[in-house]
Design brief:
Elements (H helix, E strand, L loop, with lengths): L13 E5 L6 H12 L2 E4 H9 L3 H8 L1 H18 L7 E4 L8 H10 E7 L2 H8 L13 H19 L2 E4 L5 H16 L2
Parallel strand pairs: 1-3, 1-4, 2-3, 4-5
């Protein structure tokens, strides 16, 4: 996969955000990159840019399995092909990235994995306004969110180093927890 992303630091030096759609990965990721001095990489945005289509079109034309393959290829690239002499990043993932065992291993190798755990009711409220969530283009998006939550929670838990139950927190509180966890994880 071709990629015009920043050159990354050695494996195990990045902060990776996981969780269901609407949990705040992109919002927290952008803010965390500002306060930590790390670059921000949004995997979904990188895939859209590289493929030249929105994720909703990729899902519609190629299917979810194809999209998950693109995520795996991007994770491999970030881990194996980026030079090891550059900067650490905050990486926001797609919500389903954890469903592949290979991806879970790649994520853990890349660095500290933070699960932004948000309840289904809150996710439903947050995602209702968005029409670009292909898995929620159904008559009962809340039911889909519940099924995804039930299916993915064990994988998020297995993958994460840090779990932040962030539904009732503001971004500042989430950032504080992330920064404290990073200081412990990275030993600085």
């Amino acid at each position: 996969m071709l990629l015009d992303a920043p050159q990354l630091a050695p494996a195990n030096q990045h902060i990776i955000l996981i969780g269901l759609m609407g949990c705040g990965k992109t919002t927290v990721g952008r803010e965390l990159s500002k306060v930590s001095g790390r670059s921000f990489l949004d995997m979904d945005a990188i895939i859209e840019e590289q493929i030249g289509k929105p994720i909703s079109e990729i899902f519609a034309e190629e299917g979810e399995a194809h999209f998950r393959s693109l995520e795996t290829a991007l994770l491999r690239y970030l881990l194996e092909e980026c030079p090891t002499s550059a900067e650490s990043c905050v990486i926001s993932t797609g919500g389903g990235v954890v469903m592949r065992e290979e991806n879970r291993k790649l994520l853990r190798t890349l660095g500290m994995v933070v699960w932004l755990d948000v309840d289904v009711e809150t996710l439903d409220l947050r995602t209702r306004r968005s029409g670009n969530r292909p898995l929620l283009l159904t008559e009962s998006p809340r039911d889909v969110l519940q099924k995804l939550y039930d299916l993915r929670c064990p994988m998020y838990y297995k993958t994460s180093d840090v779990v932040i139950r962030s539904a009732e927190m503001d971004v500042t509180d989430v950032l504080l927890i992330c920064r404290r966890a990073a200081a412990t994880y990275f030993g600085n």
